[in-house]
Amino acid sequence: MLSLLYLQLCLSVVFAKYQPTWPSLDSRPLPSWYDESKFGIFCHWGAYSVPAYKESAWLWWYWKGGKTDKDVVSYIERNYKPGTTYADFARDFTAELFDPKEFADIVKSSGAKYFVLTSKHHEGFTLWPTRTSWNWNSVDIGPKRDIVGELRDAFKGTDIHYGLYFSQFEFFHPLYLDDKKYNTTAYVEQVSYPQLLEIVNRYKPEVVWSDGDWEKSDEYWKSKEFLAWLYNTSPIKDNVVVNDRWGQGSIGKHGGFLTFSDHFDPGKLVARKWENCMTLDKLAWGSRRTMKSSDVHTVHELVEQLARTVSCGGNLLLNVGPDMHGKIPPIFEDRLRELGRFLNASSEALYRTKPWIHQNDSGNTWYTSRISSATLPKNRLYNPQIEGQTIVYAWVLDMPTKDLELKMVKTTERTKITFLGTNVSFEPGARSTLLVNFNSIPWRQLIRNDVMVLKIENAASQTLGSNIYERRSRVRRLLDFSWSYDAF
């Protein structure tokens, strides 16, 4: 049956716009909503949230897999009865306090514009009912609820795009282990490929975030065939975005937006749309019982990471790990709501912006920008600096103790500086740099006392800065950039 379905999918793309080849698939422009959103929330949740120890999403691997951790083994032996198996955790994954509307409210309050849920992580436990994972899904056992569906419904009617993470491989699925041993494809044909089609057709996510691909090629996963179907004929073909984890060698090279690695922070402009996926808990993706308050990123650290990421052309995907009962830890909620208050007041410096010709400056300052010109290509990599058209935003992350000089900004007699979130502005006059007088800072009106955003209007025109594209082998069509990889 699956072979027939696969044949039909292949035939359907023969005369379609996007062919199952990387050059064709990589030519698809990203839907504009993704670049405009800038910030999303990741959610790692599954049976691993029950033991919730160390890097819980990988607990099986450190307990019984290929990298045994004596501390993990000892933890299980001390806290669970003899003979406990990984499958036993699913029974205790009750999520009895799970309220999808509460999840949606917390995410919305953070200022995030998209949400990505782990529909299935490497343990293989699915958060939706599927025949391909009998008695190992959230409806047959544990919560007895369609978590993927309930969260999708909770985000309907909001401005937040709903996405799904999907692990291609499974730690201990017998068909996958046999495929590795005998060089067969039974697991893909009977499990992973049908599951991908199922979540797309049933839940219509606007993000398909693939992972767990690295042990096998994109040919094994049938990734190119899936993406061709996704882009050409799927019910989400016009709005869906995907990442770059579709088989050995694809990460940082093929797909939609690039991730390169977890916690990717290049500190310079990247020549293709990318995403920094990072954790709110510094030490784990999933729930962790031993987490301390000092292990959780501060709001200032989150603002800094967001500014660094967006100024270099990326999006930030920030992960939270709910507990086994279905609650987002209060310290996570506090961080997200406080972050959202700052982003709400600074929204014009974040959403729908582009990188500027310079990425950073003194005082740990990072730049974003917007421009009034309607003639520039929509998928341009950055905004040029044109006096009277470009508005620059300076995210000052190290608050000054004396006058602050921003050397990348050239001012004119018409230049105006506004402290975002306040009604205070000043005109610095014509200078070769921007000087912010310490005594002019409206400290009591600032949203936070550890970061401020300056709105800079009518700065002098400049040409492209020499610090851009340190990794490029050649530069061409910079303003007419359509996210093609050949600019590296």
UniProtKB/TrEMBL annotation:
The record marks C277 as: May be important for catalysis. InterPro entries: FUC_metazoa-typ (IPR016286), GH (IPR017853), Glyco_hydro_29 (IPR000933), Glyco_hydro_29_CS (IPR018526), Glyco_hydro_29_N (IPR057739). GO terms for cellular component: lysosome. Keywords: Glycoprotein, Glycosidase, Hydrolase, Signal. One of its GO terms (molecular function) is alpha-L-fucosidase activity. The keyword Signal applies. PROSITE patterns: ALPHA_L_FUCOSIDASE (PS00385). One of its GO terms (biological process) is fucose metabolic process. Residues 1-16 form the signal peptide. The keyword 4Fe-4S does not apply. Its EC number is 3.2.1.51. SMART domains: Alpha_L_fucos (SM00812). Residues 16-347 form the Glycoside hydrolase family 29 N-terminal domain. It is an enzyme of class 3 (hydrolase). Alpha-L-fucosidase is responsible for hydrolyzing the alpha-1,6-linked fucose joined to the reducing-end N-acetylglucosamine of the carbohydrate moieties of glycoproteins. Belongs to the glycosyl hydrolase 29 family. This is Putative alpha-L-fucosidase. The lineage of its organism: Eukaryota, Metazoa, Ecdysozoa, Nematoda, Chromadorea.
